[in-house]
Amino acid sequence: MPISSISSTSQNLYSQNENSIKNQKDLFTGKKNEHSIFLEHLMAVAGPSRFGANALTFAQLDRSMDIIKPQVISDHMPIFYSFPSEKNNTKIFSWNLLADTHKNNNYQNIEIPESIYTIPKNELEYFYTKNKISATWLYYDLSTEIYLSKNFSKKTIINEILLGSNKGVEYLLSFLNKEYKQSRLADLKKGNQDIEQSLRNREIARNSLIKHINSLPHNELCNSDIYSSIVKSLKINHTINNGSLSIANRERTLINNDKLLRKISENDFLILQECFNPKLINEKINTQTINNKKFNYIEHKYNNSDDYCSIMYDSSKYTAKYVEKFHLGRNKPCIMGLFTNNTNNHSLIMCSIHYPGEEKNTENLSQIISLIDRVNIDNTEDIYIGGDFNQIKSELETKYNLLPSITSKALGLKIISAQGASMSGPDWNGAYQGKTIDHMLTNQQGKAKALDIKYLK
Per its UniProt record, what InterPro entries does this chain match (predicted)? Predict the structure, then answer.
């Protein structure tokens, strides 16, 4: 589901000779660098007409921090669904816009050096998630403390670290041994422990990491996997907070793309997950509509997150009769709405869903179906349950088929997915490489298509 609006420089990445791409090596480790690895991934799963936001971002990270910024919007591919029928000829646009709160997942793209696993687990417990060291928490914590430190306010100092010079190694070691142990600039990892306990666990983990790095030969440190991973974390930190993945840059890219907004406005419903500014997006889309079409919007977020869920609908064609705002799992906001066609009074149920990917049972899916049953009184409504399900189609089908057949009127739904809408984010090299995790469950006949890249140039 990758998407980005691509500069001419970005497009030239694909014109490089395939062999030269595969032969690129990291200056520090002698291994293939992130540029090469991500381009190989794109060639394997995306094809020359599909580009992933994260892939492009990583491909253009250079050691001087003078990053060529691709015009990234999200790491998901927008999908169009069309459902032609006599009662409701419905067009739906679905997109996960990558909320600011989830950008730290990009640290998962950094491999944990094997030597770090030699540190006793009980000492590094703070950096662990589910019996595995979390690259997100390890590299977020370290890179954030470096970037927010007053001692690193000069760009020249950061650049020395990025270059792996002798001065850079000295700067890094000095920071680790003097400041990193006690600094509290990075956010604490959320968990079940109280703040003081989390602070103690973090200090223990940092001390163990520092001790391990100090044990390495300093004259060889710049060539180590650990040093290389720290460099990558600094680049990701820069990209997330000041570069192409910053909320300001991505929002600006979207609202200034009239061609894309015009294409989006051709639909009847827009179902958005991880939407960073529903009100502004709705306003900008309304500047591109024709034939007196006007979108209204419904938004929902859980607690104080910036992770909005939204349904935008053509109010000249549909009226919202009932809205249910809820969340799945720990914090995934979702919306269900009952809408009536203003012309023929026929009803439909529209859901914008952000589904927890770690779920192994049917609890969340049962919750959605139960909500639909409450408004699907006469069992005649069109049903559309769409969005980011964080799982491939076969996994969702398995859960759906496990639902008791006697408990719901909303059974017999089909799952529709768009071919080519592949994942290119932090999970790109995991179980979902090149596979679609955005879907639509519906009782209608229809089809799905990923957005043509021409609307994003």
Answer: Endo/exonu/phosph_ase_sf (IPR036691)
Question: Could you give the CA distance from residue 429 to residue 58 in angstroms, rounded to a whole number?
Answer: 14
Q: Domains (ranges, CATH) in the chain?
A: 74-98+250-456 (3.60.10.10), 102-244 (no CATH)
Q: What is the dihedral of CA 36, 257, 274, 389, to 10 degrees?
A: -70
Are β-strands 71-74 and 438-442 bridged in parallel, bridged antiparallel, or unpaired? unpaired
Cβ contact 310:318 at 8 Å: no
Residues 338 and 155: their CA atoms lie apart, in Å, by: 54
Alpha helices in 265-415 (DSSP H): 278-286, 363-375, 393-401
Report whether 431 contacts 9 (CB < 8 A): no
What is the DSSP secondary-structure string of 159-170?
HHHHHT-HHHHH
Cα–Cα distances (Å) from 57 to 163, 192, 243, in that order, read: 19, 34, 9
Write the DSSP assignment of 397-450 as a string of letters.
HHHHHTS-TTS-SS-S-EEE--TT--B-STTTTTTTBT---EEEEESS--EEEE
Read off φ and ψ for residue 374, nearest 5 degrees.
Answer: -70, -30
**This model's pTM is above 0.85:** no
User: Which two three-digit tokens encode residue 402?
Assistant: 């496990």
**Residues 76, 332, 281: CA angle, nearest 5 degrees:** 55
Tens digit of pLDDT for each residue in 309-366?
999 999 999 999 999 999 998 889 999 999 999 999 999 999 999 999 777 789 999 9
